[in-house]
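Posting this for the archive.
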Amino acid sequence: MTTSSTPSRTSSAQGPAQARSPKSRFRWRVIDIVTAAVLGVATGLIFIVWNSVGYAWFTVMDAFTPGVGGIAVGIWLLGGVLGGLIIRKPGAALFVEVLAASVSMLLGSQWSIETVYSGIAQGLGAELIFLLFFYKRFGLGVAMLAGAGAAVAAWTLELFLSANIEKGPEFLTIYLVSIVLSGAVLAGVVGWLLTRALAATGALNRFAAGRSSKRIG
């Protein structure tokens, strides 16, 4: 009787724990919040540099062919991709991108409060991609899709925020293709490589991103 009842108690004890595991996987820890905040501030500082360099590149490219300047936008989409790849929790992509945009605004972004509006849209675009994969897949392909998703969201916002809707279908098509390619590469690929580089240093050992990177390596 004792022998047969032991597995039953063990099974009943494991059942609730297994049932709780999906919730615990999505629950934010203190270290998640701190790391997301650090990522947001660091990315915001990158944005500050890119506000000058990237915008100059955007202007030059757009002077040759209107819309091609979108190829420079990808770096401004980096926060959402990094947040999603490293934290791997619902809301991480949005949190990091919006915080980065806020830092950029507070440190003198030439677009003022519109910077934050863009951060919200771009963060939501990246967040939607991670959500579509149920926060379970974080490979290079998903990173590129997240960058592209952030780009589509940015393009959509600018239809109204920057009055791009008045510029005609040719401009809008060229700009959409350019910004999506930029998001996939400069946010997606670069974000994935940065995550791998951080994992290699051991900085992400307390995150699934760090453990999975070691298994792949």
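The chain has one domain: 33-216. The two ends are 49 Å apart (CA to CA).
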